[in-house]
Design brief:
homodimer, 110 residues, mainly alpha, Arc Repressor Mutant, subunit A, two-stranded antiparallel ribbon, 5 helices, DNA-binding
DNA sequence: GCTGGGGCGTCTACATTGTAGGCTAGAGTG
DNA sequence: CACTCTAGCCTACAATGTAGACGCCCCAGC
């Protein structure tokens, strides 16, 4: 059997948000990325819990780093999506696309 | 019963599969649609449980109907996505798109 | 350098969603 | 009538989503 497991809905959002930030994926920035793009609030608990679970699954990794554009000198976590995480994201995306194919007329209207 | 903002990953798949079948959305056909397009197995339990939960939330509705292309004479359920269900699907889709914007280069490669 | 405030990350706890497989009932077949 | 087949139900549990309280560390003010 193939890796049948799909990512959860929020997990996908987090991975996408990290990718959006490219090299600037400090936790808080990632969180704000989700909040502004998806127009929803993200509690710290929800955010870090999901991040930690994905770390355990090997989908994300992080390293301590000094933020450049802040007066704050402390180290912060800079996240990145691993190759496995990217693969899982693609698998979910592919499945979703295959199921959406040909439905644009139904889904676009408003 | 808090009106959760976003649909789960499997819920989205089920809604999309129903839409794919248009007027022929008998339960079994919907299930096969998911299995073939998403390349995964869907147990009856998982399928009907999700369907029932979405019925309770008002995202899908069904009516008994006689299938046309079968020798079986019994009535079967024909499902449809309600206006609310479609709205929820669009909301999830929009959020996902906003988060994916500009990442095609990262996501497409293989 | 002690202390208070605020941002960063953890922990606990619970709600919602995802999943499998056994069970039941009713229709077809002999 | 038993005998099979299968659509849909029920139970049970795993995984994911979510919030808020808590603790720690850095900086500013004393």
């Amino acid at each position: 059997m193939s890796p049948n497991q799909f990512l959860g809905e929020f997990e996908q959002m987090v991975l996408l948000a990290i990718l959006q930030r490219r090299d600037e994926a400090f936790a808080l920035e990632v969180r704000r990325e989700i909040e502004s793009r998806a127009e929803r609030t993200v509690s710290r608990g929800a955010f870090y819990t999901t991040l930690q679970r994905m770390e355990e699954k090997g989908y994300v990794a992080w390293s301590e780093d000094e933020p450049t554009d802040r007066h704050r000198s402390g180290m912060l976590r800079r996240y990145e999506v691993t190759a496995e995480g990217l693969g899982a994201l693609r698998a979910s995306r592919d499945a979703f696309r295959a199921l959406s194919r040909g439905l644009d007329d139904v889904l676009e209207a408003s």
